[in-house]
Automatic annotation (TrEMBL):
Region listing for Disordered, in residue ranges: 120-153
Keyword Oxidoreductase annotated: yes
Binding site for FAD: E37, A38
Keywords: Oxidoreductase
Name of the protein described by the UniProt record: FAD-dependent oxidoreductase
Native organism: Streptomyces tuirus
Cofactors: FAD
Pfam families, alphabetized: Amino_oxidase
GO molecular function: oxidoreductase activity
Protein's UniProt keywords contain Oxidoreductase: yes
SUPFAM superfamilies (UniProt xref): FAD/NAD(P)-binding domain
Annotated ranges, domain Amine oxidase: 17-446
Length: 468
């Protein structure tokens, strides 16, 4: 049990990745830190359900190896990232097309990887096969199908222009991207001079997957940052499920730092009040909850709109032959925004002999979500899904804070001396944004309290086992 009168230098409210990353930096600076979490586990939306040997993420957020905070946050040194196959796999015009980036090709940090027709749904007997011809791509020679009307990547010239644009984007400093004029992402794409087929067949479904925004109303600056990360890194998943990241952060904090099952009812600059243990006095409070919970503790804090996300998990003993690829629908012909045989990416997510297929629906899900998703997956993968077993359907109404323009990517984390706030609603609505907001908040706290020396000399926090 917590001692109600125990004092800490900083109390962090919320054990999501933003609060846990801030707690790491504070503890490393000698600041006595206590993290209070109302739920019985850490991680917030980065939760993973375990069912019959499967690990099922509730919100299937995609990470990137290009996220600097994954490398710079204390406590994440042991994080194992499992990358998808380079680029993405597009389903369009009844076929599969590989498109994406390959760091280092031709000496550029990011270059067009390959645009190659893969085995897919068979063509109707009357449809003639399209001859193939070589196309020059920065760094090497590849073969691609001769473009047809409706092909998701356009002509060979269009593909080369796309490769050059991604290469330039990978090498552009983030500060320059943030200085660009701000528009909704969909409008900005149309103004960039790329062909409509390339935008609609590749960039639109890709950005929808990266931003969880099917209508591309997100700020073009945030969209540019997402494309830059895609062009300079690899999409990936944490080994063991999304919960692996917050669990690692929590387990590497000093013993007794994180307290689960403790609900904070009010905050001030010098104390928090909990439902279970009364008042806990401190020198500063950091509210690191989701945006709505933060606004309940901090009246006047703006609550953004949200993008809802539904993740549907299936298992089969006959997985489709798409390897470890992220599959997007270039035709936007169904509810699924992106899907993958995630057990091919991270084998720890499924028991031996079974495959785990995880699919993400953006926006409001259809009435019978599983049936609609199965029909769409059968078309995307080119296989029957009738015998696939549904493991879970997770719907999160407030999964990702919307970032419509004008969007401040560095919203204040210091409300006043002694009271701070962080989370993905203060930066970009990504794991990178959550981690970075925790970094900014801890820096502001250390600046106000004085860093470099222990600030509190109370007895150590009693060790209490954290709920699983």
């Amino acid at each position: 049990m917590l001692e109600p009168a125990y004092q800490a230098d900083v109390v962090v409210v919320g054990a999501g990745v933003a609060g846990l990353s801030a707690a790491h930096r504070l503890s490393s600076a000698g600041v006595t830190t206590m993290v209070l979490e109302a739920a019985h586990g850490v991680g917030g939306r980065m939760a993973t359900e375990k069912v019959d040997g499967f690990r099922l993420d509730r919100v299937g957020q995609l990470l990137s190896t290009a996220y600097p905070e994954l490398r710079q946050t204390p406590g994440l040194g042991g994080l194992v990232l499992r990358p998808f196959a380079p680029g993405v796999l597009l389903h369009g015009d009844g076929r599969h097309h590989r498109a994406g980036v390959q760091p280092g090709a031709g000496g550029a940090r990011g270059a067009l990887h390959a645009v190659r027709a893969l085995a897919s749904a068979p063509r109707p007997p009357s449809a003639p096969r399209t001859p193939r011809k070589p196309v020059a791509v920065p760094g090497r020679q590849v073969s691609v199908p001769r473009s047809r009307s409706g092909a998701p990547l356009g002509t060979a010239v269009d593909q080369a222009r796309l490769g050059a644009a991604l290469t330039r984007l990978a090498g552009t400093p983030a500060e320059r991207l943030l200085a660009r004029p701000e528009l909704p992402a969909g409008e900005a794409l149309a103004a960039r001079g790329l062909p409509a087929r390339t935008i609609d067949g590749f960039l639109r479904p890709l950005l929808a997957a990266l931003l969880c925004d099917p209508d591309l109303t997100t700020s073009s600056r945030c969209a540019d940052l997402a494309l830059r990360a895609f062009a300079s890194g690899r999409l990936c998943l944490p080994e063991g499920g999304a919960e692996a990241l917050p669990e690692l952060l929590a387990s590497t904090l000093p013993p007794g730092t994180v307290r689960t099952g403790v609900r904070v009812t009010s905050v001030s600059t010098t104390a928090v009040t909990t439902a279970e243990h009364g008042e806990i006095r401190c020198r500063a409070v950091l509210v690191a909850t989701d945006a709505r919970a933060a606004a309940e503790l901090l009246p006047g804090l703006r609550v953004p709109e949200f993008h809802p996300v539904t993740v549907v998990h299936h298992t089969t003993d006959e997985p489709p032959e798409t390897g470890a690829s992220l599959l997007l629908d270039a035709d936007l012909g169904g509810p699924v925004a992106h899907t993958a045989v995630v057990s091919r990416v991270d084998p720890s997510r499924a028991p031996a002999g079974r495959a785990l297929v995880s699919s993400t629906v953006l926006g409001r899900p259809p009435g019978d979500a599983d049936t609609a998703v199965r029909m769409h997956l059968a078309r995307l993968y080119g296989v029957s899904t009738a015998r696939w077993e549904t493991l879970a359907v997770h719907h999160t109404a407030e999964a990702v804070p919307a970032m419509r323009p004008p969007h401040d990517l560095r919203r204040p984390v210091r409300l006043l001396a002694g009271l701070y706030v962080c989370g993905d609603h203060r930066d970009t609505s990504t794991v990178q944004g959550a981690l970075h907001s925790g970094h900014r908040a801890s820096a502001a706290i250390l600046a106000d309290l004085g860093a470099g020396r222990p600030l509190h000399t109370a007895d150590p926090v009693p060790t209490v086992p954290r709920a699983a």
